[in-house]
Design goal:
The chain contains eleven helices and 19 strands. The chain is of the alpha+beta class. A hairpin with a 4-residue loop joins strand 14 and strand 15. It is globular, with a radius of gyration of 21 Å. The two termini are 35 Å apart.
C-alpha cells in the first residue's frame, strides 16, 4: 500500500503527528512494535507545559486532560530543611503546568485516531526503512504473520531512543552529543493521598528527591540512587526512611505513606543527534533527543517537534512549499538545546554527585539560594519550567 506519511512509533510524537496530519486531510499509517494494551498501561511521568496543554486542547484532545489532570501554578524547591515556593504563574504572566501522565495522553491519542478511522498497526516486528534518499521511500515490516511493505512520500521516525529510525541517518552526515550522569532515579508508585498540592524538588547531601502526584489516591515519588543498584536492595521500610531523611523539614510537614505497588530504577542521560533529518526521513521525540527528567521536558519536546513537522508537511503536501521541511531540523534543535540546557542545570543544581566534594555542595546551595532570593533568577527558572511559547 501507499500512504503520504509512514510514522514509525506510536508514542506521543507519532500519534500526535498522525492526528495533526489528519486534521489537515493528510493520510498516514502508524507502525508500533508494542501492543495497544502495553503502550496504554506503562505508567510514565507527565508534566505538560502551558503550550503543550493548549495545543492538545486546540486539536480536540483536551477534554479528559482538563477533567482529570491537575493544573499547578507553582513548584517547591526544598533544601536545608526548608521549602521555598516558586510562583510559576505569578512569574510568567499566568502560565502554568498540567500534571497529566504520558500514558493518559497516549490513551486520548489512540482513541481519537481510531475514532477517525486512523490506521495504527500494533505488534509489528522486523521494521526497516528503505530509499530515504529517493522520491518514494518505504517501510518494510512483519505484521499478522506476513511480510508487508508501505511506500510513502515521507517517513517520520518517532520510535524512541532504541528504535530503528535514528540508525538510518548516515554516520558521515550525523553528529551525536551525549552525557551520562553518575546517578539514576529510584521511582515508586504508592497508594496514598497527596503529600503536597504541588511538586517538591528536594536537594539533600544524601541525594535528590521528588514528590509528585498522579491522582487523589496514587502518588509518584523518586529519589536519587546508583543506576546500577538493584530494586531488591530496597524493601519498603528502607525506601520510606530514605525519603523521610531527604524531605524532612522543621515545620511539621508530613510525608504520606501507603502501599508501594511499583518500583523501578531509571538511568539519567542527555542525548541529541544532529541533524534531525536525512532525505525523506524526519526524526521526532526521543528518537532524536533525550533529556534527564529533572526539567520535565521529554514529552513536551516530542509535542513541539511534531507541531513543527506537521506544519512543514502540510505546507509541502498541500502547497508544494519545501521551506518548512528544509528548516525543520534547525528550528527543532533550537528548542531542543534550550531544553537540554535547562534540564542539565536543574539536574546539576539538585543532585548529589557522590564524591564528598564539600565545595560542590556549597556551590549548589548558593545556586538554590540565588533562585529563591532573586526575583529575576526565580523568573528565569519559572519561564523555562512552564515552557516557551510556540
Amino acid at each position: 500500500m501507499h500512504t503520504k506519511v509512514a510514522i514509525v512509533g506510536a508514542g506521543p510524537a507519532g500519534l500526535l503527528l498522525s492526528h495533526l496530519l489528519h486534521l489537515d486531510g493528510i493520510e498516514s499509517v502508524v507502525l508500533e512494535s508494542r501492543s495497544r494494551q502495553e503502550i496504554e498501561s506503562v505508567i510514565r511521568a507527565g508534566v505538560l507545559e502551558q503550550g503543550s496543554a493548549d495545543l492538545l486542547t486546540e486539536v480536540g484532545l483536551g477534554e479528559r486532560m482538563k477533567r482529570e489532570g491537575a493544573v499547578h501554578h507553582g513548584i517547591e524547591l526544598r533544601f536545608e530543611g526548608q521549602g521555598h515556593r516558586i510562583n510559576l504563574s505569578g512569574l510568567t504572566g499566568g502560565r502554568a503546568i498540567t500534571v497529566y501522565p504520558q500514558h493518559e495522553v497516549i490513551k486520548d491519542l489512540v482513541a481519537a485516531r481510531l475514532a477517525a478511522g486512523g490506521d495504527i498497526r500494533f505488534d509489528v516486528s522486523q521494521v526497516s526503512l528503505h530509499g530515504i534518499d529517493g522520491r518514494e521511500p518505504s517501510v518494510r515490516f512483519r505484521h499478522d504473520g506476513q511480510d508487508r511493505e508501505i511506500t510513502c512520500d515521507f517517513i517520520a521516525g518517532c520510535d524512541g531512543f532504541h528504535g530503528v529510525s535514528r540508525a538510518c541517518l548516515p554516520a558521515s552526515t550525523r553528529a551525536d552529543f551525549s552525557r551520562k550522569y553518575p546517578f539514576g532515579w529510584f521511582g515508586i508508585l504508592v497508594e496514598a493521598p497527596p503529600s503536597s498540592d504541588e511538586l517538591i524538588y528536594a536537594y539533600h547531601q544524601r541525594g535528590f528527591a521528588l514528590v509528585s502526584t498522579r491522582s487523589p489516591t496514587v502518588q509518584r515519588l523518586y529519589f536519587q540512587c546508583d543506576p546500577a543498584d538493584d530494586v531488591a536492595n530496597w524493601p519498603d521500610p528502607r525506601i520510606w526512611e530514605e525519603l523521610r531523611l531527604r524531605l524532612a523539614t522543621g515545620d511539621g510537614w508530613d510525608l504520606k505513606e501507603g502501599r508501594i505497588f511499583q518500583k523501578g530504577i531509571i538511568a539519567m542521560r542527555s542525548f541529541v543527534v544532529e541533524p534531525m533529518r536525512h532525505g525523506r526521513l524526519f526524526l521526532a521525540g526521543d528518537a532524536a533527543h533525550i533529556v534527564p527528567p529533572t526539567g520535565a521536558k521529554g514529552m513536551n519536546l516530542a509535542i513541539a517537534d511534531v507541531r513543527l513537522l506537521a506544519r512543514a508537511l502540510v505546507e509541502q503536501v498541500s502547497f508544494g512549499r519545501d521551506g518548512g521541511l528544509e528548516d525543520y531540523s534547525r528550528q527543532a534543535l533550537k528548542r531542543v538545546w534550550r531544553a537540554e540546557n535547562f534540564s542539565w542545570r536543574m539536574t546539576s543544581m539538585l543532585h548529589a554527585f557522590g564524591d564528598g566534594d564539600s565545595f560542590q555542595h556549597k556551590i549548589q546551595l548558593a545556586e538554590l539560594r540565588n533562585v529563591v532570593d532573586s526575583p529575576p533568577a526565580a523568573a528565569a527558572l519559572a519561564e523555562n519550567y512552564v515552557g516557551w511559547q510556540f
